[in-house]
């Protein structure tokens, strides 16, 4: 029984070591996977490994370090005007913040909103192009997503975005009128 206990403890420690090595190399996903494997292994062999405190502490460290790296990356991507990747990094950080006890960055929500706002401007331009291509279902879909995200990210008071949303609604309506007139003219022409 002592030998079995030592073998199980050695396996557990090996998994923790792998996680620590991945963390040192900033491979956060791999580190989390190894630490979670250690937790599962401890749970499976709890009679030989009575505590999983090491794995819990390591997971907390991994998530904290990953959070800080994501926020830092998001900031630098915003500076580089790479808003899509900035938003993705900051959104991941926000998920970690929601699920783990990490030291919170007070600017995260503002950074997230700033990157999302820039993406919504890009989306509004894409929707205008859909209207110009007479792809109204896709334009409406993008418009609804923009309106939804305005609420979700507290951007309803942004005048520039509100103007783009209003312009987009007007463009869609105008194109619907053009399409209806063309359809009506077609019916009249075929009747003659």
Q: What would a concise description of this structure say?
A:
The protein is mostly helical and 192 residues long.
What's the helix and strand layout?
Elements: H1 2-24, H2 28-44, H3 53-79, H4 83-99, H5 108-132, H6 136-152, H7 159-191
Helix pairs in contact: 1-2, 1-3, 2-3, 3-4, 3-5, 4-5, 5-6, 5-7, 6-7
Report on this model:
This protein is mainly α. Helices cover 83% and strands 0% of the residues. The protein has seven helices and no strands. The protein has helices spanning 2-24, 28-44, 53-79, 83-99, 108-132, 136-152, 159-191. The N and C termini lie far apart (97 Å). The mean pLDDT is 95.
Q: What's the N-to-C terminus distance?
A: 97 Å
Query: How would you sum up the major sheet?
Result: none
Number of E-type strands: 0
The ordered string of helix (H) and strand (E) elements is HHHHHHH
Instruction: Return residue spans where pLDDT drops below 50 for at least 5 consecutive residues.
Output: none
Total of helices: 7
Q: Helicity level, as a percent range?
A: over 70%
Beta fraction: under 5%
Arithmetic mean pLDDT: 95
What global shape is seen?
elongated
Query: By helix and strand content, what is the structural category?
Result: mainly alpha
Using only CA atoms, what is the Rg? 26 Å
